[in-house]
């Protein structure tokens, strides 16, 4: 038998640690002279589409998709490649370009602690690619159209109105071809961007109906993405009907065993934001399934669920074992808290009238002080309001004066940077008065002046809830300046019925507190027929409005696409 070549003998010989080297994994390269090897190392690698302008007669490569997927390392490189063969990419190649750019941006965003991307992955590249795709919208299939808006959502880039209108028209023409995955991605992405279709106003309803026609095929993450997108679009003026929500919830019930903690978090949060409460049987099934996922849930998911349950006000459905499991898990997650964890939990706990245990309350208050520089006016308002609803008083137990004073100071500091709303100001004054926390005269005067300014700026009359809370606060504080401000804004703007109701000495403190926590008094609750869902699960009282600032991007909710 002929002797093996030296390279093969080396490949089959024992390794450095005594094991044998797999010859099939050896890469044999042609040996170059030492000078040529040095020159190769000195010349930087340049990708072929970056070596210069496109030459006359240069043909678009047949295999451009592998190049987009495996050779591009930044959003700028994706854009350069698309622009090099402008107008020549087919639907599949454009779809891959959208997907690759969105994926590269997310990778860069997640790799930096400060969440600041490099210039080569900036938003301007997404804007240019979406703009370049306008000429090809007529040739893009539904996957390409869905991926284009998904890319924009990754960058949080809202295209100009004319480009949005062109995309809406293109999708409307192909609405009957959209798949379930594409429907969930589109509605989710539109929600991220607060992109409410105006060129084709019925687009969302058509997409949702398309999904509900195949409800039995919806997976948990599809249902949650659709509901979350609907919740994000609700402040912009669109929300699904009660019947659609019933069908979405019903589609998810047989699959609750496969729900992840994030899925439960997204579903309950969406229902709370939409102010739609499913019937007790459906909610009981959801909560029973969620209890098995509590040990797997992180801090953000748990506090978001508690906030959502409080907004829905479903105390009778929450078992003692579920609440104990949530508390136990939170106590083990002290290192996972962020600035919104305590406000979220305290809001939900107060609405549910399920006070946290003393160890958990101490942890929540400690984390509030730890993240004090990050708190906003809405966060401070929620914390003080919740402590008041739980029956605490300043200087009693864990709620000390040393805890309350820096909170009020932080409110004033952030109020100077971003003025608080009238609801936040009235709730802060009401909560501090009920907590028996004394405000310095200068601070009280500044708050009254700010409330006067906000009340003057708003075009409508002061709401019953704001007026009642302010009346109760100023009477408790014995502030003639506050009462004078309140009467000045009420006299002449409300009828005699409202004035006599507010300034009737017989109403008392208990009545004031009730209206501060129950209903805004500006319209009856609306009951929606269909599946036992009622609108008004999260009333527009001081408690709900004090948490308004927590309904949006601050939640950092990220359903998985």
From TrEMBL:
GO BP annotations, alphabetical order: chloroplast rRNA processing; mitochondrial RNA processing; regulation of mitochondrial mRNA stability
GO cellular component, as recorded: chloroplast; mitochondrial matrix; ribonucleoprotein granule
Bias type Low complexity, positions: 540-549
Region (Disordered): 1-22, 501-561
MF term (GO), any: RNA binding
Cited InterPro entries: FAST_kinase (IPR050870)
Protein name, UniProt field: RAP domain
Upper classification of the organism: Eukaryota, Viridiplantae, Chlorophyta, core chlorophytes, Trebouxiophyceae
């Amino acid at each position: 038998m002929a002797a093996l070549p030296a390279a093969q003998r080396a490949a089959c010989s024992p390794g450095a640690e005594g094991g044998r080297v797999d010859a099939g994994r050896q890469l044999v390269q042609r040996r170059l002279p030492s000078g040529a090897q040095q020159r190769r190392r000195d010349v930087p690698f340049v990708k072929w589409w970056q070596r210069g302008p496109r030459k006359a007669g240069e043909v678009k490569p047949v295999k451009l998709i592998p190049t987009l997927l495996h050779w591009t390392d930044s959003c700028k490189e994706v854009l350069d490649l698309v622009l090099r063969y402008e107008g020549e990419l087919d639907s599949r190649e454009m779809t891959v370009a959208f997907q690759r750019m969105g994926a590269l941006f997310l990778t860069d965003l997640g790799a930096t602690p400060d969440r600041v991307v490099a210039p080569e992955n900036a938003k301007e590249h997404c804007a240019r690619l979406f703009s370049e795709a306008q000429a090809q919208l007529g040739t893009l299939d539904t996957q390409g159209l869905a991926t284009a808006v998904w890319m924009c959502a990754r960058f949080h880039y809202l295209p100009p109105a004319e480009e949005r209108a062109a995309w809406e028209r293109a999708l409307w023409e192909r609405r009957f071809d959209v798949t379930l995955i594409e429907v969930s991605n589109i509605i989710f992405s539109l929600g991220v961007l607060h992109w409410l279709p105006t060129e084709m106003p019925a687009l969302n309803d058509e997409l949702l109906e398309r999904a509900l026609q195949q409800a039995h095929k919806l997976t948990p993450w599809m249902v949650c993405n659709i509901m979350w997108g609907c919740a994000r679009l609700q402040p912009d003026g669109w929300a699904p009907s009660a019947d659609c929500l019933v069908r979405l919830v019903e589609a998810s019930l047989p699959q609750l065993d496969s729900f992840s903690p994030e899925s439960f978090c997204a579903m309950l949060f969406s229902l709370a934001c939409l102010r739609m409460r499913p019937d007790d049987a459906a909610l009981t099934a959801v909560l029973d399934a969620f209890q098995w996922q509590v040990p797997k849930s992180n801090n953000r998911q748990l506090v978001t669920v508690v906030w959502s349950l409080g907004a829905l006000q479903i105390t009778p459905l929450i078992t003692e074992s579920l609440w104990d499991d949530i508390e136990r898990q939170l106590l083990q997650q002290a290192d996972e808290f962020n600035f919104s964890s305590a406000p979220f939990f305290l809001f939900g706990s107060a609405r549910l009238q399920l006070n946290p245990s003393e160890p958990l309350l101490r942890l929540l208050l400690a984390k509030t002080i730890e993240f004090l520089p990050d708190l906003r006016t809405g966060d401070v308002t929620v914390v003080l309001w919740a402590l008041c609803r739980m029956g605490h008083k300043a200087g009693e137990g864990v709620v000390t004066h040393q805890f309350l004073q820096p909170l009020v100071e932080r409110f004033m500091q952030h109020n100077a940077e971003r003025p608080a709303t009238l609801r936040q100001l009235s709730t802060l004054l009401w909560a501090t008065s009920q907590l028996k926390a004394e405000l310095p005269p200068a601070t009280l005067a500044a708050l009254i002046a700010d409330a006067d300014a906000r009340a003057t700026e708003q075009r409508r009359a002061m709401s019953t809830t704001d007026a009642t809370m302010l009346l109760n606060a100023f009477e408790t504080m014995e502030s003639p300046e506050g009462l004078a401000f309140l009467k000045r804004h009420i006299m002449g703007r409300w009828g005699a019925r409202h004035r006599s109701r507010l300034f009737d000495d017989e109403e008392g403190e208990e009545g004031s507190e009730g209206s501060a926590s129950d209903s805004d008094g500006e319209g009856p609750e609306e009951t929606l027929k269909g599946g036992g869902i009622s609108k008004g699960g999260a009333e527009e009282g001081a408690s709900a409005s004090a948490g308004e600032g927590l309904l949006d991007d601050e939640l950092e909710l990220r359903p998985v696409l």
